[in-house]
Every structure is written in C-alpha cells, then in structure tokens.
Amino acid sequence: MHAPAPAAWLLVALCAGTAAYCLLRMRSAVEEQRRTAGSEALMGLAMAVMALPAAVYDPPRWTWAVYAVVFGAAALRALWSARAGSAHHLHHLVGAVAMVYMAAAMGAAPAGPHAAMGHGGPGGVPLLTGALLVYYAVYVLRTGTRMVPATADGATAPPSAVAVRAGWGDRREVALACRLSMGMGMLAMLLTV
Questions:
Q1: What residues contact 19, with CB distance under 8 A and at least 6 apart?
Q2: I need a labelling partner for 44 at 20 to 30 A (CA). Which of 24, 95, 148, 180 fits?
C-alpha cells in the first residue's frame, strides 16, 4: 500500500509480529483454534508484504493477481466454513474479500512509487472502500471493548480459573489481541487504498 515510509514500516511490524504469534498459536490442542490461527497468520503475512514501502519492494504486476487468487480461495474456504453460522468465519470472509479488493486496486494502479496515493478521484472514496472502512472501524472498537474484562458492578474481573489453566495459545485475550491488531492493520491499509 502507499503509506508514508515510517507508517508503512510500523504496519509491516504490526502485521508480521501478529502473524508470527498466530503461527505460534497454531500449536493449540484445539483444532478450530489451530485453523483460525492459520488463517490469521496467512492474512498477517500477506498484509505485511503488501504494506512494504515501494522503495524497498516494488512487486511485479502479476503479484497482485496471485494475491487475488489466493485470497479468493481463502474467501471461498471462509464461505464454506461459515455455512454453520459462525460469525468469526464471516469475519474471515470479509477479510479475504478486502484483501482481494486491495490486490485488485494495487494491480490496477498506475506504476510508480507515488501512484494511487489513496485519492478517491473526483467521486471521492469508492463505495466498497467506505463500507470496508466502516466494518473494520466497528470491528476494532467492538473487539477492543471485548478485551476489557468487567464484572456486574463495573470493577475489573479477576482472571478465571479456566483462563489460568489454558495454554498460552488457547487464551481468549491473546486471540482477541491478535484480531484487534489485524483489524487495526486492515483499517490502516484501507485508508491508503
């Protein structure tokens, strides 16, 4: 994406760090958590590569078609998994569609390091970009609030015995932190489309 270099490097670090941690979360004993962590690791690594500044890595045009195909397949997989009614699989579907959309936007952008700097042109922000921005803004806020434990009287809740016994890769707050950082990264990347 075409963000200023310091912001791009911060985004690369955020996405790559989250992806690395998601790879470690794949060691979970729970199969569903392993699959989810694998999907999140793929998304994080792809976002990290996509966010690299153009001065460091200016991929050939065919790269964006490969991104579109890979994330098109990920979208189909998420759609298949979502048939059971899981909201999280629907989130993966939206994320994969967003990656296909960004890959198509990058592939259609004129060549050069300063092309497609996030200007919507005379029509402003495209409708799909706006819809994805709203979705990810709501997702980030909702996920952030879910990370704050609270009791009925508003005080901070102590960690439960179940959370203490769970392995570090199976802890709910760790998975939420990964999802929060991925959502913030996606929001930042969509701002540059």
A1: 40, 41, 42, 43, 44, 45, 47, 48
A2: 148
Half-sphere exposure of residue 153: CA atoms within 13 angstroms, side-chain side:
2
Q: Which phi-psi region, left, alpha or beta, contains residue 158 (left: φ > 0; alpha: ψ -120 to 50)?
A: beta
Q: Which residue stretches of the chain are H helix?
A: 5-25, 31-51, 62-82, 87-108, 127-146, 161-165, 172-191
Tokens for 68, please give them. Answer: 């579109």
Closest CA to 8 of 158, 146, 189, 149: 189
Average pLDDT over residues 131-141: 95
* pLDDT range class, residue 163, cuts 50, 70, 90: very low
Residue whose tokens read 């392993």: 34
What is the reported pTM? Answer: 0.79
Residues 6+ apart with CB under 8 A from 4: none
Is it the case that residue 114 has pLDDT exceeding 60? Answer: no
pLDDT of residue 170: 66
Report the distance separating Cα 125 and Cα 127, nearest Å: 6
What is the spatial distance between Cα 77 and Cα 187, in angstroms, rounded to a whole number?
A: 23
